[in-house]
Design a protein that fits this description.
Helices cover about 20% and strands about 45% of the residues. The protein is an alpha+beta fold. It has a single domain, classed as Nuclear Transport Factor 2, Chain: A (Roll), CATH 3.10.450. The chain has a four-stranded antiparallel sheet. The longest helix has 14 residues, at about 5-20. The chain is elongated, with a radius of gyration of 15 Å.
């Protein structure tokens, strides 16, 4: 899953919430590194596949807690680059998509 822009990624995430209508995240850690001009956010995402669409019919399976980390590099007040560290394969398996 590669995205050329942050807007494409956020649109994908909105679509994911159609599939997992109870989807939510909890931010567990947030750090700013002024010297390197980056911000790190660690969170946990949960949700149940009950919505229409997606790679399969609704499975009813719940993603119990998928850890992820965003590292956002800044140029002034704009995000220059963002990296998401996430085990997508594990999450998709838990949802019954793989």
């Amino acid at each position: 899953m590669g995205f050329a822009t942050l807007e494409q990624y956020t649109d994908w995430m909105k679509g994911l919430l159609t599939l997992l209508p109870d989807g939510k995240y909890e931010v567990r850690s947030f750090a700013v590194d002024g010297e390197r001009k980056n911000v790190c956010a660690y969170g946990v995402f949960t949700g149940t596949h009950t919505g229409e669409g997606g790679p399969t019919a609704a499975t009813g399976r719940r993603l119990m807690g998928s850890d992820y980390v965003y590292v956002m590099e800044f140029d002034g007040d704009k995000i220059k680059h963002m990296t998401k560290i996430w085990n997508a394969g594990w999450a998709m398996k838990e949802l019954g998509w793989a």
